[in-house]
Amino acid sequence: MSETGIDQLLAAKEVIVVCGPGGVGKTTMAAAAGIVAAVHVGGRVLVLTVDPARRLATALGLEALGNTEVRIPAEALAGGRYEPRGELWVAQLDTKQSWDELIRQHAPDAATRDAILGNSLYENVTAKFVQSHDYIAMERLYEIHASGRYDLIIVDTPPSRSAVDFLDAPEKMAEFFGSRLLRWLTVPYRSKLFASASRPFYHVADRILGQEFLRDIADFFLLFQTMYPGFVARAQEVQRTLRERRTSFVVVSTLDATSMSECDFFIDALAERRLSLGAVVLNRVLPSYFTERAAASAARKLGRRAPKLTSTLKLGEDPALVEGVLREISESFLSYGVTAARQQELRHEMRHAPPIVATVPFLAADIVSVEGLADIADRLRA
């Protein structure tokens, strides 16, 4: 990777979708990329997390985040080491609020809008329905991008296989609202003949499932189907945005077998959908000196000579304790050497050759401040 590889990618795109397995530091990398863009590239940059977890707020040292974008103070970016060329804003998807806004914007009239928002099933369906969160996340991304308020939007997605659902959600949601199941549920309320013929069944269902249960469901989806053309049109627009040249994907992984397998899975999924892979970020990479023969030899000597060093250096009142510490340091270094060698091998075995491969070293402490993210941003660039 060239020194400015990540900078060039961020400068060339309008949407960067960060994805990868769970637990690999994906949210941290998305936030760090946002700092790189705001500090070194310029413009208005938004980091939007659609992962229900609160990791972005934690990484930024904030108590909470929601749909309303929050600007990170310029003096906090890069820990005062640089003068930012742009602005960094952050937000986290609020599923309920986003659905409410969607209904208000796209309901065909005020009566339909109020009927949907007041329906007893609305909150449960939008909060728990499969694809609901993923669909509204894509809607939110599309709305913000279309508004033109930001020069670059960096999206932090859920863990990888869920992120595939995130990518497919607009199409699947549109398919659902035009499905046979919904037509079957709602036909009795559109056709008097069908309603008369099927009335015994619905009476039985109401006794089993609760009074007017199916009617409530049908009423809700009849209202929702009034927005079906809008769902289809928006799904097509979202898919078009994701496939445009101004959109790219960054896959984050760690160098262990499970995460790399997930990384390959997602890169394959991007290729199948004709989506652009911009970079792979390998996080928590151990330093190369762990695999150097001279370093390993020194570690072995430290372990063998621990008794002599203990008596010579006089590091403590308890020689046995000091000797144990020296041996533990020796063994730990050699163990890290084995892990580092495995990491190098996994990197060589990568099935794909992305345009940019960035590595971020292993850090002992969690990132819980903007200053910590700024440090990660520097490492991401280098």
Detailed description of the structure:
- By secondary structure, the protein is α/β, with parallel strands linked by helices.
- It is 58% helix and 13% strand.
- The protein has helices at 5-12, 26-41, 55-59, 95-106, 110-118, 122-128, 132-147, 160-177, 180-186, 192-209, 213-225, 228-243, 257-272, 293-304, 306-313, 319-348, 370-381, and strands at residues 15-19, 43-49, 70-72, 86-92, 152-156, 247-254, 277-285, 357-361.
- An eight-stranded mixed β-sheet has the order 3-4-2-5-1-6-7-8, with helices on both faces.
- Strand 6, helix 13 (257-272) and strand 7 form a beta-alpha-beta unit.
- Helix 1 packs across helix 2 (26-41).
- The termini are close together.
Uncertain segments: 189-198
Tell me, rounded to a whole number, the average pLDDT: 82
Structural class comes to alpha/beta
- Major sheet description: 8 strands, mixed
Query: How would you spell out the order of helices and strands?
Result: HEHEHEEHHHHEHHHHHEHEHHHEH
Alpha-carbon distance between the two ends? 9 Å
Tell me the strand percentage band.
5-15%
Strand order of the largest sheet: 3-4-2-5-1-6-7-8
Radius of gyration: 27 Å
Number of helices in the DSSP assignment: 17
Percent helix range: 55-70%
Q: Which word captures the global form?
A: elongated
Instruction: Give me the count of strands.
Output: 8
